[in-house]
Amino acid sequence: MTNVLEVQHATKRFGTFTALNDVSIQVPKGSVFGLLGPNGAGKTTLIRIINQITYPDQGKVFLDGQPLEPQHIKDIGYLPEERGLYKSMKVGEQALYLAQLKGLSKTEARERLKYWFDKFEISHWWNKKIQELSKGMAQKVQFIVTVLHRPKLLIFDEPFSGFDPINATVIKDEILQLREEGATIIFSTHRMESVEELCDHIALINKSKKILDGKLTDVKRAYKSNTFEVGLMTDNAAGILEQIKSKFKVSPADFRTIDEQLKLNITLGKEDSPNDLLGYLSGQAQILRFNEVIPGVNEIFIKTITEENA
Ligand code: ADP
Ligand code: MG
Asked: What CATH number corresponds to the domain at position 132?
């Protein structure tokens, strides 16, 4: 798989403070890449370097294998964390203006804007001034302007902040759609809610350093513990629990049940296979649930950051 973007050993200092410390990332073509980390980790600093708004003290950035140059700015659609539209300008006028700055003809810009304004059901905003819009509304306009010229790389800095859950879902679906159409997407977030469904790849940044990265499935595989959620239907819950405990490592389960009398998490040793456990359980009770516990991004985020900060 080729990388659309590669950052090699980027370091950025502000005076004596190091905001980004030797961070490298590789963003595969066609991926949705989540740049995750708590507030102040250095995510925006990295994004600003990629967008040539600021320059690294050390390190290099490559777009499609080429060292980053001013001409690459047009290849990247960038939604900054500090949203900046001209407040007293009208929505449509401003969108047309910004689209033409990105190289679209007026006719083309008009056509594409019509498509997006219809899609987001905001055509009636066309003649409103930006200052008349709520923060979330203005952000929708800015999202449109970011993607309108169909750049190969899209970078959204905290795209969901300022959106209610419904609009956050709209944006999330659009991001997935843009990937379907061939774009590569990087987005940053300090909140893990949408990460699960969106990202193929993640990098976790904490206190200016990258502490974890990879394909989301590989990261999850590395963090899973061979634990299974088990729900059983039985008249002899206490007796069966004792027996299971004598054979396996058991911990309390936190899933909700409707019918199960006995619910527990069972962690297998290296020598046990899920089939052994299933075979054993089926001789004991009705099995209503048998699921491997896969750690969520939020859990991995909290675990790695807590360990790192300890
Ligand atoms: P994040 O986006 O992960 O929340 P930032 O990249 O915005 O983090 O900031 C990382 C750190 O660098 C923060 O401590 C921030 O205060 C500092 N920082 C960012 N930009 C500047 C700047 N222009 N001057 C001084 N410090 C800065
Ligand atoms: Mg930021």
From this structure: 3.40.50.300
Of 44, 81, 192, the one to substitute when testing ligand 1's pocket (max ligand atoms within 8 A of C-beta) is 44
209 in a structural domain: yes
On whether the pTM is more than 0.85, the answer is yes
Atom of ligand 1 nearest to the CA of 48: 6
Domain that holds residue 23: 3-221
**What are the residues whose beta carbon lies below 5 Å from ligand 2 (ion)?**
43-44, 81
* Residue 173: half-sphere exposure toward Cβ, Cα within 13 Å: 8
Q: Are residues 256 and 217 in the same domain?
A: no
Establish whether residue 206 lines the binding site of ligand 1, counting it when its CB lies within 6 angstroms of any ligand atom.
Answer: no
For the Cβ of 44 lying below 6 angstroms from any atom of ligand 1, the answer is yes
State the closest ligand 1 atom to the C-alpha of 81, by its place in the atom list counted from 1.
Answer: 2
Q: With contact defined as beta carbons under 8 Å apart, do 62 and 26 qualify?
A: no
Q: Give CA–CA dist 127/53, Å, rounded.
A: 31
Q: What is the mean pLDDT of each run of 10 residues along the chain (310 residues)?
A: 94 97 97 96 98 97 95 92 84 93 93 94 92 87 94 95 88 95 96 90 97 95 93 90 92 78 90 91 91 92 90
Are 106 and 38 in a shared domain? yes
CB 158 within 8 A of CB 194: no
Which CATH number characterizes residue 271's domain?
3.30.70
